[in-house]
Amino acid sequence: MAGRPKIFDEQEVISKAAQVFWEKGYEAASAEELLKAMGIGKGSFYLFFKGGKKELYEKSLQQFASNLLSRLRKEIAESQNPFEYLKTFFLELSDGANVHKAKGCFMGNALVEMAAKDEYTRKMIAKLLFELEEIFVDVIQTSKDKNVIKTDKSAELLGSHLLNLWNGINITKRMNMNDASLAALIKFNLDMVG
Amino acid sequence: MAGRPKIFDEQEVISKAAQVFWEKGYEAASAEELLKAMGIGKGSFYLFFKGGKKELYEKSLQQFASNLLSRLRKEIAESQNPFEYLKTFFLELSDGANVHKAKGCFMGNALVEMAAKDEYTRKMIAKLLFELEEIFVDVIQTSKDKNVIKTDKSAELLGSHLLNLWNGINITKRMNMNDASLAALIKFNLDMVG
DNA sequence: TTCATTCTGTACCAATCAGTACAAAATTTG
DNA sequence: CAAATTTTGTACTGATTGGTACAGAATGAA
């Protein structure tokens, strides 16, 4: 296998690009800005990303979601009380000091931007969010089975409720409510589950 | 007052522009497309909108919200049971046949796009959404006072919950859940209020 | 050390972006 | 009618967009 060695790792540059897309969105993230963040030139980029900016965006979303989902699954699996873990997971959203404060949810943002523009990408994003919902459903079902939570509602309904809570809070928090109100709102919604 | 008469009504062209911004977002809505929808040329546009595209965007949001809020206030005032009216208002979101299906909430979309980009516009949008929340709070407080709903939670908390429900559903619906599940999710959240 | 292969950086591209300049058109006033 | 005023349509601007072409750099194999 001859040839000049490549100077970058694909997963690494996708991760860098994802940060730019997360903050700016698809349209507003310029190719120049993305390449600068990735630390590679146009020659290399268009050789390895034949689909250009769109391919990079989709891979950014895929990788980002994949990391989030697997980290979440892992921490839930290791947790003594998965439902309590889920609560802290949501309550982190009310931390105004968080670095990602104004950025919201990368997937939610992408869904907003792509829903009316690109059906293929919309479906892709929807699938990723449904995976997140599935994690919620599983935790709820298990918690129900173990009598950790008491409810007469189905795990599916409650799971979709948590996904919707996630989607909602990631919008609402950007109105810059004070942290306490946001936390109270989240707690109220979590108490609805069990 | 002499001079060539203008061929357009300001409120009317803003309304047309709002439709384009609502569907495409700020960045993706091109000046050409906006002007075409508004039915006026560049000469007229830049004469009356000195602030260009950004001014048009802000006025679109203001006008859109103003219309929504006053219509909502009016229908609530005329309603026999304001809380029941609010329920139908939310349940309309689950109608997949709705024309505005994929567009979500204009203000929510704008908040997503502007939150990390333009603090002035973000604040403006936040204020509009807080006005919507205020309407929810008022209806809830009145309904509590009249014993239409029973709850030990404050109207403020429940109002913020409804705003967050609004924000959330407008994202979640774009995952293309089936109408029945979406309606069940909304009903579940409304039942939490009273 | 030469060759084939692979990757990189730069120069370049047409298309599109929001916005400006300005002459002509359409009106009221005198 | 002519003059003053206001709006309109078009031609044009420089900047930026995502993307391409390609020469040359860096490697392994022969």
> What class do helices, strands and sheet pairing of chain A give?
mainly alpha
- Rounded to the nearest angstrom, the radius of gyration of chain A is 19 Å
Helical proportion of chain A? Answer: 55-70%
Mean pLDDT of chain A: 96
Low-confidence stretches of chain A: none
Please state the oligomeric state of the protein chains shown: homodimer
Shape assignment of chain A: elongated
**Structurally, how many domains make up the residues of chain A?**
2
- Major sheet of chain A: size, sense and barrel closure? none
Instruction: Compute the number of strand runs of chain A.
Output: 0
Determine the most extensive contact between two protein chains: A-B, 46 and 46 residues
Order of helices and strands of chain A: HHHHHHHHH
| Beta-strand percent range of chain A | under 5%
Give the terminus-to-terminus CA distance of chain A: 58 Å
Instruction: Output the number of helix runs of chain A.
Output: 9
Pfam families (chains A, B): TetR_C_13, TetR_N
Protein name (chains A, B): Transcriptional regulator, TetR family
Organism (chains A, B): Flavobacterium saccharophilum
GO molecular function (chains A, B): DNA binding
